[in-house]
Fold these 2 entries.
Entry 1:
Amino acid sequence: MAFPVSDEIHLWLIDENSVDDALLESYWPFLSPDERVRYDRLRQSGDRKRFLITRAAVRNTLSHYFPDVLPAQWQFSRNAWGRPVIATPTYGGGVEFSISHTRGLIAIAVAASGSLGVDVEYTVRRNRTVAIANRYFSPTEVETLQRLPAQAQRERFFDLWTLKEAYIKACGMGLAIPLRSFSFDFSDEKIAIAFAAERDDEPQGWQFWQMAASPDHRLALAFKRAGETATMKVVCRALVPLRDSTCIELRQLRHGVQHL
């Protein structure tokens, strides 16, 4: 794909199972000293594999847009809330990216500018969805969730969780933003967001997408660019880092544009 134009978001998806052991080994030299320390702290082989693929994938993706920069040359730092940002090379600026990974799947979203966040979740894992929602979601979201049948509650939980994670990533602050301070509504299968009084934000200008990345994965995107509400187009590709990529289409579940 060419560099994202002003009305495009590029979404790259990496299936962990598409990376064999030999290819995985070739990713190791890309890690910075700090990343190698983080890798060594991981105890589960699946977590180590996912970490290694993610770090190779983001470098591979950025070099796609900046071909004069080799994947191994990209170095990253973190903002005050832990979000990865490009440290070097300095001319790698002018691109926004967001990363998410879960069991089996890694997602990287790229845009030319704006506030961008992506989240992907593995929905088959066991967890106490209603209990987590009661603790972290807004009262309106919890009330709507509890009115649904049990199976629908689980689906709605991951719909809400991915959107909330995508939003706080787009803001660059992660869980420093209380998840109760904003609410999502899915009326007419469109996504709308509302903010509590303590959350210093406005709905206008935000755009959201929800997709089925696979039968077992939910994915959400959040995007905002100051002063513009033109509907963005999401272009998707499946990537095997350092090997190949192919165009794909994901099933869109819902979309929402909060107009100015």
Entry 2:
Amino acid sequence: MKTTIEQKKTNLFIILAGIFITNAILAEMIGVKIFSLEKTLGLEAAQINLFTDFKLDFNLTAGALIWPIVFISTDIINEYFGKKGVRKVTFLAIGLIAYSFFILYMSTNIAPSDYWLKVNNTDANGQPFNIDYAFQRIFSQGQAIIVASLTAFLIGQLLDVYVFHAIRSSTGEKWLWLRATGSTLVSQLIDSFVVLFIAFYLLAGNNKWSIEQLLSIGIINYIYKFTTALLLTPLLYVAHHFIDNYLGGKVSSEIIEDANTKGYQD
């Protein structure tokens, strides 16, 4: 019986870690695209004025679409495997993201085949097209962006863990929504500004943004993250339900209690 429980626990950790890491890597890879939330939803541009004369819309990185999944995964791992479980997957994800960027850097700098360039030398409308240039533009992200993103990700994850357990210490086992959503909202508030500050101010050289720009764009990003986190809160209970059914109610409670006293040490 013990072996079966341990196997289920290990399987659960692998599945949750896989969801977490896959979405973290994908969010970084697709983050190069900026999309319009309003146009996607068929709405008029927001045209919000904050601190500057610029009218700001909800223009977000494509990675913002799936970052909420990363933070929901964080909260679920936190609930069942504690601080050590989250730290394991966080550091593993950072290592794999850095590895992915290194491989992408290598792939954008190897010499393209003449055959590949020739068969892809026009677009769908017959216009001249340089596929190697397009490949480099899509997959080459500036070092400042990479450093900023990884730093913000690490700080956000560690802060999420701290706030999650601080709330749990005060409320006990009840109010999963409060500790999960609360930790996400706090960590994403910091994340939203850290990545902008490092990439577009600290490491931007002569092209750095003003503090007003950083604040206004950071607030726009956080409004989206804040709203999304609230809307996705029910998914925590859905996940909790299926996990509890998989483990068994008694075993699930024991694992949660163990995670919040000793952490995940397997």
